[in-house]
Amino acid sequence: xxxxxxxxxxxxxxxxxxxxxxxxxxxxxxxxxxxxxxxxxxxxxxxxxxxxxxxxxxxxxxxxxxxxxxxxxxxxxxxxxxxxxxxxxxxxxxxxxxxxxxxxxxxxxxxxxxxxxxxxxxxxxxxxxxxxxxxxxxxxxxxxxxxxxxxxxxxxxxxxxxxxxxxxxxxxxxxxxxxxxxxxxxxxxxxxxxxxxxxxxxxxxxxxxxxxxxxxxxxxxxxxxxxxxxxxxxxxxxxxxxxxxxxxxxxxxxxxxxxxxxxxxxxxxxxxxxxxxxxxxxxxxxxxxxxxxxxxxxxxxxxxxxxxxxxxxxxxxxxxxxxxxxxxxxxx
Amino acid sequence: xxxxxxxxxxxxxxxxxxxxxxxxxxxxxxxxxxxxxxxxxxxxxxxxxxxxxxxxxxxxxxxxxxxxxxxxxxxxxxxxxxxxxxxxxxxxxxxxxxxxxxxxxxxxxxxxxxxxxxxxxxxxxxxxxxxxxxxxxxxxxxxxxxxxxxxxxxxxxxxxxxxxxxxxxxxxxxxxxxxxxxxxxxxxxxxxxxxxxxxxxxxxxxxxxxxxxxxxxxxxxxxxxxxxxxxxxxxxxxxxxxxxxxxxxxxxxxxxxxxxxxxxxxxxxxxxxxxxxxxxxxxxxxxx
Lengths: 332, 288
Known about the structure:
The complex is a heterodimer.
Chain A: H1 7-26, H2 29-56, H3 65-83, H4 87-111, H5 117-136, H6 138-141, E1 147-148, H7 156-159, H8 165-188, H9 190-200, H10 202-207, H11 212-238, E2 240-241, H12 243-246, H13 249-262, H14 269-288, H15 295-310, H16 315-331
Antiparallel strand pairs in A: 1-2
Chain B: H1 4-35, H2 42-59, H3 64-87, H4 95-117, E1 130-133, E2 136-139, H5 140-162, H6 164-174, H7 176-181, H8 186-208, H9 218-233, H10 238-258, H11 261-278
Antiparallel strand pairs in B: 1-2
Helix pairs in contact in B: 1-5, 1-8, 1-9, 1-10, 2-3, 2-4, 2-8, 2-9, 3-8, 5-6, 5-8, 6-8, 9-10, 9-11, 10-11
C-alpha cells in the first residue's frame, strides 16, 4: 500500500519534483511573483505543520507551537539586529535553544503524566507565556508593534536576505522536502510503533519495556526544533516579526487547523491542509479586498467548522481512506 | 518599596476581579464537567453579549437591567446554538476535533464581529460613585459586578443542588453511562447545561461592560486565563474553579502593580504550569 515503495509512486514523485523545481522559471511578472510568494508560504507553513503532526498523531495535541515558532524567529531577529550575528549561526542557536526549552517543558509533562486535555491546555499556557514575554520586553522586541529585521545591503548572503524571491522559493522547497523526509523516516521506524503504543496506553507501553519518557521528550524536542526552524525561515523571508503572527493562540490554532484539515496520519496531509487553508484565505482576500474587512476570515472560520464536522479524518486523509477501501470492497 | 496602600488596593481589586473570573470559569467548567468538551469559544460568546449590552444600553438607551436580561437570554440562546449546531454532530469524535470545531467558531465569531462592528473599542458610560475606605478607592463599577456575580454563583449552586434538573446535571457529570442505563437521555441534560453555561456567559458579559470596553478580540484577553483557571481548579470541579479564580486574580492584580500587567499574566501562567506538575488533578484534588 505504501505508494513511495512502488515504481509508479516513485515516478509520480519524481515528476512532481521536476515540476516544483521548474515552477519559478514560468512564474514571472506581477502575478507570477505573487504566486511564488503564496508557494513559499505554503512550503514554510507545511513544514511547520509537519513538525506539529509529529506530536499530534501520537496524541500529544499541542496548542503552544506558537511558543516554539516565536522563540526561533525572535532569537534570530534579536541576535541579528542587536549583535549583528549572522542568521546562519543565529538559526543554530535558535533551534538548539528551542529544543532545550521543549525538553524542559516535556520532561515534567512526561514525568508527572500530564496528558490529554491537560497537556493541550498546558501547552496553551506555554504559548501565552512566550507571547506575553515578547510583548513585555518591548525595549528589545518592539512589543506588539513587532520588529523589522535590519537590512543587510550588500551582505545579503550573510544575512539570508535576498531581493530575488526565487532563492527563497528553493530554500523553502528544500525545507519542505526535508520535513517530508523526517516524517517518512519516523513513520517507518520503530519509534513510530513505540509512540503509537504510548499514545494508546502509557502504562501498557511501559510494561512491555518501552521507555515512555525518552520517546515523548524526543518527539517533542524534534517537533519544537523543526517548528523553530520554520519560524526562522518565515522571519527571514518576511523580514518582520510580530508577537501576534508568530506566537500565541491564534497562530497555534492555525497550524493545528491546517494539519487536521489535511489529515495528520498521512504523509502529505499537512501539506494539503496548509495549501488549502492558505489558498482559501488568499483567494478570499482577493475576492473581498479591503471592502469587507473580516468577511474573508468569517468564511474561513465557517468552512473550518464545516470541514471538521463533515470530514473528521481530514480532506486528504478521507480521500486516501476512500481509495484504500475501494479495492478491498471490490474483492468481497 | 511599594506603598502598602497600593498593595492593599491591588489585593482588593484582585478579589473583585476574581468574582467575575469565577463566573466565567464556573460556566465553562459546568459545560466541561457534563459534556466533556472544552469550548475554546466561550469568552467570545461573552463578547457578543457585551455588544448586545452596548447597543441596547448605550445606543438605544434601554434601562440597564432590561439590557442585562436580554444579554442573559442571548447567552442562553448562543449556548444552545453552539451545542446543537457544532458539538452535537461531533459528540463521538476525538476530543481534538471537538476542540478545533469550537476553535473554528472562534475565528468565525471574531471575524464576523470585525466585519459588522469594525475593531473599534466601545465602552459604556456610567456615572457611579466611588467609595474611599482608609485611603483605598472602591469604585462602584467594581463592587456592583462583584456583588451580582456572587449572587449568581449562589443561584447556580442552589439550581444544581435543589432542583430536579440540577440533580440530573450532576448525575451526568458523575457518570454518563450509568445515566443512560437508567433510561434517561443525556441529550436534554446537555442542552440545559449549554443553556445555563451560556447564561453565565451572558451575565458575565453584562457585568464586564462596567470595567472593560468591548472589541472583536476581547476573547483573547480572558479566554486562555479562563481555561487555565478551570484546569487549575480541576476540570469539572466547581469548588476548585471558584478557589482558583481568586488565586489567579490575586496573582495578576498584585504582580501587575509590582511589575507590569503582562508580567502579572506571565507569573499567573507560570504558577499554572508549575501547579500542573505538582497537582495535575487541580488544587483541591487529593494526590493519587
